[in-house]
Amino acid sequence: MAFAHIHGVRLHYQVLGEQGPWLALVSGGRRSGAEFEPLARQIAARGFRVVLHDRRNTGASDVCIDGDLGEEEIWADDWAQLMRHLDAEPAFFGGGSSGARLALLTSLRHPELVRGLLLLRITGGAFTAGRLPDNYYGQFIRAAEQGGMAAVCATPFYQELIRANPANLERLMAMDPARYIAVMRHWLAIFLQGPREPVLGMATEALQAIRVPTWVVPGNDKTHVSRHGREAAALIPGCELF
Questions:
Q1: Edge-to-edge strand order for the sheet containing 91-96?
Q2: Alpha carbon separation from 154 to 55, 160, 175 (Å, rounded)
Q3: Under DSSP, is residue 17 helix (H, G, I), strand (E, B) or coil?
Q4: 18-44 tens-digit pLDDT
Q5: What is the DSSP-derived secondary structure letter of residue 138?
Q6: How far apart are CA 78 and CA 165, in angstroms?
Q7: pTM value > 0.85
Q8: pLDDT per position as a tens digit, 138-197
Q9: Coarse DSSP helix, strand, coil percentages of the chain, rounded to the nearest 5 percent
Q10: Per-residue DSSP letter, 113
């Protein structure tokens, strides 16, 4: 397993392919980058170098519940720095669901790194806005309020993180529950800001300002409504819709 120290946190990553343009992919939700490995292998076989990584607080990377920025902004800055660390710039950035949002955010925060965007299963709409805040933050805040860090560590999500990176147990148990709750509430408040559609948290003006080649593949369920993917594609200049 390969790791890079990025902004004080150890991130797990892998590179598939030995030559060609760089493509960085991020999975959806809080899932490991391994979700995209089958697709990444197929793309690498066609002459690309594909970078997969586990964002902080996901997969085998370190847990670090801290920071004044929103969690997705922290992820975007980590992702950009990882690509610089690998000398893999500029690159195509892409992902599915929350990974698509993160690719968009990275293109806004670090435009010099981005050659193009691959946006799969865009998330937006009332159902998504009502479901994801509790899924990402609310359930863990309640666990910490009711049982401290031991209760947080006992949740299925954190159990998975601890299995993938056993040192995460010590990191989590060393946290003051009040600090954990404060950071998670801060991240939740930021997550709740901004538009709800067509892309959660992404202003129409930001989509209209994209100036790199962009491909959109809409989703097909309540969280990834096809209409929102098509509407986002219509707002991005020159976007190709699949």
A1: 2-6, 9-16, 49-53, 22-26, 91-96, 114-120, 214-217, 240-241
A2: 21, 10, 15
A3: coil
A4: 999 999 999 999 999 999 999 999 999
A5: I
A6: 19
A7: yes
A8: 999 999 999 999 999 999 999 999 999 999 999 999 999 999 999 999 999 999 998 888
A9: 50, 15, 35
A10: G
